[in-house]
Structure formats: C-alpha cells, structure tokens
Write a sequence for this structure.
C-alpha cells in the first residue's frame, strides 16, 4: 500500500503558528457556529452521525465524556442532551470557550458539564473517560499523529475515541476554491474586503448546499482565508497512528462492512484495522463529490487518484505562498489528468473539473466569476472514525 504525498513540511520552513488557534485568537473569532434555529433538526443530524459511529444514547447517558476542541459548543449541545454523568470540554481558544460556556449554560441546567481552556498539547489529568471526542481539530495540525496519540490516552480500556479525518480527495473541491481565491484575493485589500469579495464570489456555490448549517462568512473564513499550515489528516494515517492500542469501530460515511460469521472472528483473524484500511481505499473515491456515490473500486486506482489530489493540494499551497504563474500552469495540467481518472466513475464530477479548469484559464474577467458546472460541487470534506480501546476497564 503506498501513499505518495509529501510528509508534513518541516517546521523550519513554516511560520511557527498553531493551526486554528492562532488564527482564531488573532481575529478574535470562533467561526464554527452551527445553525440551531431548528434544534430538532440539528439533533437529528447529530443522532445520524452518532448512529454511524456506534454511539448509542446509552453509551453516553450516565458515562464520562471528554471533548477536545468543541469550539462554540453547538455540537456539544447534543452530547450534553444525552445526559452524561460527567462532560468535560477542553479548548484553547478563549473566544470559543466563552461562547461554549454561555451556550451550554443557556441550554443545560445540570452541574455535570465543565469547560476548561487548555492546549491539546498540554492538557493533563489522571482521569480516564468512557468516550473521547475530537471533531474538526486534527487535520492541519503540524503533528496530528502526536496529538491523536495524546488525546486517545484519556480513553479507558473498552472506551471509545471519535475523531474526524480529511484527505485531499474529499478536500479537492475546497482546495480548488482556495486556488481560485488566491487568484481572486487582492494583496492590497484589507482582510474584511477580501472576506466580503470571496463571500460574494462563492455565495452562489454555498447556496447550492442542502442542509447548510453555517453562515457563508464563517465558511469563507474557515475554508478560504484560514492559513492551512499543516496537511489534511487522512483515515489511513489515523488508523496507523494508534493501531497498537485501538481498533476501528465505526465510521461516517459508513464505508465499513463485515459479513463474516462472527464465530470465525477471533485471535489473528480479527484484523479490524487491516480490513478498515482496505475498505477505506476501496471507497475513498466517494469522498470526492457528495453528488456521486458509486461502488468500491480497486485500491490501487484510488491510491493513484489520491496521489494526484495530494499533488494538486501541494501546488495550491505553493501558489498561495508564492503566486508563481508557472505553478498554476502545472496544477491545471495535473487537473486534466485527474479529470480523465474521475471520468471513469463520475461524469458529473469530471464536468465540474473541466469547467473549473476553463474558468481558471480564462482568468476571471468579470466581477463575479462564472464557474459553470463547478459551482454546485462539494466533496465529503470530513470523515468520522470511532475507535475502541483494546482491553477492558
Ligand atoms: C474547526 S474548530 C472545530 C469545532 C467543533 N469541534 C466543530 O466540529 O464544529 C477547531 C477547534 O479546536 C480548537 N483547537 C485547535 N487546536 C487546538 C490546540 N492545539 N489546543 C486546544 N484547542 C485547539 C480551536 O480553538 C477550535 O475551537
């Protein structure tokens, strides 16, 4: 099994900032609010996610839960509603912490929820928890493997760890919007002007998302303006990082299936992580485009496709830093390779890619550029995985 992306860039050639935290603190924002105007619908979405991950209500009620990086706490509301005996939330951003405290106080009257400001790198406790949650935090970190190992230690044997992962396949549509943003942003403009311009340009794209639960400004801040210093953290890297102590338990999207007769599953035959890795590679093409879901493909074909997506992601980051026109040219040529590969299983995605390449080649002459069939294309940006800690409490 090969993975061709470059390793996370050495700290020496990157500014020493902490992903998310420093950007959020510098701008005094926590751009992760969810629309909870219809709380029932919000809870139903969270319930659907937890169901995929194997987190039934009884796994939370009366249990201990720790959550790292809850942000403003909108998702935490659902977890709190399942009545854990203890719910500790840890985040490094003072703005998010304050919003999280206010939101949870307004919605829950129970004294079992505590919110603590601390860095994932530094938080310490001897307590071990039934459930450890860490959503939307590990990708883009300089050393996600270290952070995952660190936070997963707080799970009891037999406990569950839930994380989100990202790969450049699910992120390709976003990487291309970041690419276009780098062309569209004016270096002399203020951040507020760039935010307003990009929100205008990409508003029609975001308007096509069914069930969009975030404001367009937050989305632009978090996806297009946010400086991604690290790399996406894909599921295969996460599984390998904690393979010694954890086994994959569930996933969303739910790409795992196990049709083996349970009596055959013991000893060396269990191979949960190995099978999860294989299922991940066979289904990863479905992360590319939420509109197109097809059956499994050969692992090697999907690995080759992800390698191309890795390369375009790197070129996009290089272009953002340097604005070197030759990088743009190379990237557009690689996009044609990707378009041909994608055409084997998704016409709608291939058409989106072709129109994006076309728009970039024309160079955005109008005030609000026309991205054609690229406009409604969004990937399955985040994937969730739950792990069981080996052993018994
Ligand atoms: C993208 S937000 C995710 C928020 C929420 N979990 C969600 O999924 O909507 C990432 C959160 O992780 C926090 N965070 C990121 N890196 C951190 C670190 N090293 N230590 C503590 N908190 C961190 C940020 O402050 C932010 O609230």
């Amino acid at each position: 099994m090969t993975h061709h992306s470059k390793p996370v860039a050495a700290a020496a050639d990157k500014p020493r900032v902490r992903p998310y935290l420093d950007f959020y603190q510098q701008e005094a924002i926590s751009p992760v609010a969810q629309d909870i105007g219809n709380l029932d619908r919000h809870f139903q979405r969270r319930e659907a996610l937890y169901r995929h991950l194997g987190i039934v209500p009884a796994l939370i009620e009366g249990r201990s839960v720790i959550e790292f990086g809850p942000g403003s706490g909108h998702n935490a509301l659902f977890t709190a509603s399942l009545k854990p005996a203890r719910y500790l939330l840890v985040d490094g951003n003072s703005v998010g912490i304050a919003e999280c405290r206010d939101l949870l106080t307004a919605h829950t009257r129970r004294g079992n929820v505590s919110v603590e400001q601390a860095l994932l790198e530094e938080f310490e406790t001897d307590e071990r928890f039934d459930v450890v949650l860490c959503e939307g935090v590990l990708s883009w970190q300089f050393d996600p493997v270290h952070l995952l190992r660190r936070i997963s230690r707080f799970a009891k044997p037999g406990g569950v760890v839930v994380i989100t992962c990202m790969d450049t396949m699910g992120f390709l549509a976003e990487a291309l919007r970041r690419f276009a943003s780098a062309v569209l942003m004016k270096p002399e403009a203020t951040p507020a002007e760039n935010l307003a311009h990009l929100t205008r340009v990409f508003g029609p794209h975001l308007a096509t998302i069914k069930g969009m639960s975030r404001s367009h400004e937050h989305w632009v801040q978090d996806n297009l303006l946010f400086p991604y210093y690290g790399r996406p953290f894909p599921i295969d890297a996460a599984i390998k990082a904690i393979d010694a102590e954890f086994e994959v338990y569930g996933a969303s999207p739910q790409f795992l299936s196990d049709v083996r007769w349970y009596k055959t599953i013991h000893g060396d035959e269990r191979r949960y992580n190995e099978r999860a890795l294989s299922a991940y590679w066979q289904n990863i093409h479905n992360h590319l485009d939420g509109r197109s879901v097809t059956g499994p493909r050969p692992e090697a074909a999907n690995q080759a496709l992800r390698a191309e997506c890795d390369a375009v992601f790197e070129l996009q980051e290089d272009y953002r830093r340097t604005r070197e026109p030759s990088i743009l040219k190379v990237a557009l040529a690689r996009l044609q390779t990707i378009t041909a590969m994608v055409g084997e299983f998704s016409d709608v995605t291939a058409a989106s890619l072709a129109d994006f390449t076309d728009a970039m080649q024309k160079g955005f002459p109008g005030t609000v550029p026309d991205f054609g069939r690229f406009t409604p294309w969004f990937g399955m940006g985040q994937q969730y995985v739950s792990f069981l800690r080996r052993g018994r409490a």
